[in-house]
Amino acid sequence: MDKLASSGDAEKFLQGLGLNVSAGVVRKIVDTLRGESGSTLYALYAYRPGKQPPLCGKGTVYKVKKLIESGKLDPLLRYWGLKQVAEHDPTQLLHLKALKTFLTEDPNIRRSFSADEPSWYMQMLLQCLVRGDPILLPVFSMDWQDLPIISNIRDHCPDHRLWKQIEDWNRKNTEYLHSIVTAGRKLLADWRGGLPFKSSVVINADQEHDLLLDIFNWSTGQLLGKIPHYGTVYARPEPKKGEADQVFSLCWGSRSYAYGTGEQIECARQLLEDILKRWSNSDEIRSLVYQYQELEGLAQKIRGEIQGIDEETLSQGVCRDCPRLRSEEKAKE
Asked: What are the DSSP calls for 97-147, one per residue?
């Protein structure tokens, strides 16, 4: 109950705070604390022969005192005209409402807190790795955190869980990207390092990219519940042309990836089967999928925090979710 309209509201308000005394008793305690009664707190609860009986118990007096200090009695004080209603800064309130709209509706912000599946990054990474190009993975800009309006709220309550979650998301997203790069490099090394000849002898860059990406997607798909059914790995003879040696293709299901002699393709086939077996239960894959799922869960919490921003209370310099304010209130109790 933030606003009281009658004495009946006042009595109900006090009962809600656990006070079993009348509003009149509370008013006398308030006046004493404000120095307007010419008395002392001790005189309110002490028994003195020949003097006026105690107004209430000592516990009630100091409970009212704590309620005043914590601000929980403010609605009643405003009802009595002892505390002015905080004036809203219309400019600050307008900025805060614009902030919420920006955070909630701007598609770039939503994407900033949404981890793409491992495959999305891996396909770009492998394009760089198989060609020996510099690794370039997209990193979303978080410059919006430096906007003045953001700083105003963050400075008001730097311990708010929203900021801690954003910092945690940034850290975990960086670790996630590093894990993808590590996994891609290891997968490429397992493939190329397992062949007794250069991979370029039997496979070109595009085919190698597709093969490694399919291996990766098959491995992560088992943990993400999206298992692609590629089928059996086998060597298939190709139609013979001229006097050249018989050409074979490396197949996985209905798709062909590499072409070479029977000996070369058989070697590649055995290596592919071995890689599939090892990567289907590798630490790299399990860790990567866990990081992705953890990021998505944290992103959902952040979006919920943004939706829950209360512009009016923040414009008054008050944050109901501020751990600093909660700890101060607890210390006063």
From this structure: HHHHHHHHH-HHHHHHT-PPPHHHHHHHHHHHHHHTPPP-------GGGGS
